Recover the amino acids of this structure.
């Protein structure tokens, strides 16, 4: 990076950014002006002087990534997107936090050009930034592993601006520990240490030595103190020098502790909690404008020479993009096979041969769906090089290890069980479920590789903020959740999910997939990998389940339907004897076996029962009304659902006369067969529920 060029017009642009932030919050009457004001020099430095970006192409693969982890200070980013010509204009700043605007209260991915990630909950931004850095290294390994450091078109930096709140949240501690362990020299975070939050001085609750903590994590830590002389001096050169040093440290992530005064140079409200989260007020805003030489009577004023200077970022971006393109084209010419791989992955397409690679499990055997998933991942890993993932210290339980693959860690951290390679495919998150979810989101936001992470279903509660954000952003993160019911057994109620499937299904845009047998697992994975518009969680059993003997197409007579029907979310697994059902038995996951057994018992009693397997309620909801009617005809009102958890999400399927076989209380410590018997998750319970539903429908 060239020596810093900074003049009076740059200072004026920074002051303009401060005033725009204050004006925007004042106009809407709410928001967070203080941090945007005091961070204006740092944000301007990054966007105008440091980062490799092209405002005319915010999806350019070679760009540096910027993540505003302190998302409440959205104006820190919005103002720079306006000044730099990324697509925002003054009217967008004037519309801050209002209906339909491009400038919502927190930056939102897919809503505003130039925003890489939705950063609402504090800590999620810096934690997902670790995932961005993971992905950059992994993608470099896929496409250009042998290039010297800094010479590849796939080399770039991820920059983060984080605040006190981000570093107080536990998720950032988990992710930052992993970043140090991974030696992510491509990650540079600026920590705005202004020591003010909503409750004012952070000393009331936050007095730890953050720099020492990050040094202990293995980060390269520098401090730039704009208050060190007793006079507040925004020493941009010192910050620039620190960024240069961070860029030069290739074996560690970097934290730059930037000590600022929030709300500078507000005459009366700087360095207070009041300026953190509320408008300045007319009098104080006028005072700021007077201090900076702006007319207090005017709002949203940008001098022509300022916008001319800052919009120069467009041409500079095009030039650096064109220079990068030369290197990319040279790489493509020298690596045609890698270029073909790059093009396919960028297009979001799976390679040929995925269906052929799916393992077929023999009917009549018994396999847990977690074990089946492990075999599927091994088979798919052989044909999908962009597939990678692991677990939160549960590899032997989640079975999320791609067979034969090395671990994604610096080689020095290899153990007698795991062989490390910086470009490996097996992820080890340690016991850090919260960070795992955020890191997975960062990986999929960075590029089109397919990453997954596993833990027990009960610990999805630790992941929920990141899972919710994945759904909100509509990004295809994949969450593998095993031990999916009380059938995990002796570990007891703390480990046995009861409400988790229901609460996860309540998240809009999240696919929950609970396969009934091993062959459903194979087709579920294929479908998950084909879908790119939202995240998915696959819930898998600890205990062995029967592998159903199936036919090739739809259910007919006593022949069960093919597992490829999983793509529809629900399907007729076993048709009613005679073809016309008296009652419909609706099951999912490990409880489908009880529905099939109940069908046979009812058949012996002259009751015709259809069995419907529902691996994914969300996928079924996407089907046509005609298809849904063919599976669950409205004329058949006698219905039973069976799932070893809450019945809440099955109510829409059951109607007025349906009955649910479910568990509406916490579990207990015992073997799974005892638990199923004692809690009424049995074939006999399904048969009785069917009779009760038939009686209710007839009354």
């Amino acid at each position: 990076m060239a020596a810093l060029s900074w003049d009076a017009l740059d200072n004026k642009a920074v002051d303009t950014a401060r005033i725009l932030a204050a004006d925007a919050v004042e106009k809407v009457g709410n928001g967070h002006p203080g941090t945007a004001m005091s961070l204006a020099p740092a944000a301007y430095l990054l966007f105008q002087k440091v980062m490799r970006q092209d405002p005319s192409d915010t999806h350019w693969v070679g760009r540096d990534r910027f993540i505003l982890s302190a998302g409440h200070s959205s104006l820190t980013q919005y103002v720079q997107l306006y000044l730099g010509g990324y697509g925002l204009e003054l009217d967008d700043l004037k519309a801050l936090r209002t209906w339909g605007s491009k400038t919502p209260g927190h930056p939102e991915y897919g809503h505003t050009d130039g925003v890489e990630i939705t950063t609402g909950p504090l800590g999620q931004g810096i934690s997902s930034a670790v995932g961005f850095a993971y992905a950059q290294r992994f993608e470099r390994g896929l496409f250009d592993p042998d290039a010297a450091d800094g010479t590849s078109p796939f080399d770039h930096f991820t920059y983060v601006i984080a605040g006190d709140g981000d570093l107080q949240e536990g998720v950032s501690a988990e992710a930052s520990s992993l970043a140090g362990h991974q030696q992510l020299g491509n990650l540079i975070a600026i920590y705005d240490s202004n020591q003010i939050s909503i409750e004012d001085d952070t000393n009331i609750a936050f007095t730890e030595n953050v720099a020492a903590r990050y040094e202990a994590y293995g980060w390269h830590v520098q401090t730039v103190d704009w208050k060190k002389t007793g006079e507040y001096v925004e020493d941009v050169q010192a910050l620039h020098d620190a960024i240069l040093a961070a860029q030069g440290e290739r074996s560690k992530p970097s934290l730059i502790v930037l000590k600022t005064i929030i709300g500078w140079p507000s005459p009366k409200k700087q360095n207070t909690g009041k300026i953190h989260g509320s408008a300045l007020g007319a009098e104080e805003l006028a005072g700021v404008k007077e201090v900076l030489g702006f007319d207090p009577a005017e709002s949203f004023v940008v001098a022509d020479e300022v916008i001319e200077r800052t919009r120069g970022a467009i041409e500079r971006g095009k030039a650096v993009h064109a220079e990068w393109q030369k290197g990319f084209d040279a790489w493509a010419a020298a690596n045609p096979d890698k270029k073909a791989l790059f093009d396919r992955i960028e297009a979001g397409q799976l390679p040929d041969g995925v269906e052929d690679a799916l393992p077929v499990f023999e009917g009549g055997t018994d396999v847990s769906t977690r074990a089946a998933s492990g075999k599927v991942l091994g088979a798919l890993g052989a044909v999908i090089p962009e597939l990678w993932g692991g677990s939160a210290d549960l590899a032997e339980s989640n079975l999320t290890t791609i067979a034969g693959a090395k671990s994604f860690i610096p080689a020095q951290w290899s153990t007698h069980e795991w062989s490390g390679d910086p470009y490996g495919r097996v992820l080890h998150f340690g016991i850090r479920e919260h960070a795992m979810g955020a890191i997975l989101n960062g990986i999929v936001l960075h590029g089109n590789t397919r990453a997954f992470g596993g833990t027990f279903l009960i610990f999805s509660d630790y992941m929920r903020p990141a899972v919710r954000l994945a759904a909100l952003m509509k990004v295809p993160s994949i969450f593998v959740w095993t031990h999916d019911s009380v059938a995990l057994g002796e570990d007891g109620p703390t480990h046995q999910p009861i409400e988790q499937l229901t609460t996860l299904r309540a998240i809009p845009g999240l696919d929950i997939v609970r396969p009934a047998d091993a062959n459903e697992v194979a087709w579920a994975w294929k479908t998950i990998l084909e879908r790119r518009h939202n995240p998915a969680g696959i819930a898998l059993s600890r205990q062995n389940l029967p592998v159903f003997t199936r036919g090739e197409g739809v259910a007919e007579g006593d022949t069960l339907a093919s597992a490829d029907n999983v793509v529809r979310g629900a399907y007729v697994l076993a048709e009613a004897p005679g073809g016309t059902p008296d009652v419909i038995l609706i099951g999912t996951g490990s409880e489908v076996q009880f529905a099939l057994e109940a069908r046979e018992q009812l058949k012996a009693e002259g009751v015709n029962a259809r069995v419907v397997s529902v691996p994914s309620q969300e996928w079924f909801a996407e089907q046509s009304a005609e298809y849904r009617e063919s599976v669950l005809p409205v004329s058949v009102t006698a219905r039973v659902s069976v799932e070893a958890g809450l019945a809440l999400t099955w109510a829409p399927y059951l109607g007025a006369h349906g009955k649910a076989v479910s568990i509406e209380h916490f579990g207990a410590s015992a073997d799974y067969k005892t638990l199923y018997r004692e809690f009424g998750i049995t074939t006999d319970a399904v048969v009785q529920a069917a009779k009760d539903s038939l009686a209710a429908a007839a009354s």
Summary: The two ends are 80 Å apart (CA to CA). The chain has a mean pLDDT of 97. The first strand starts at residue 65 and ends at 68. Residues 304 and 310 are 10 Å apart (CA to CA).
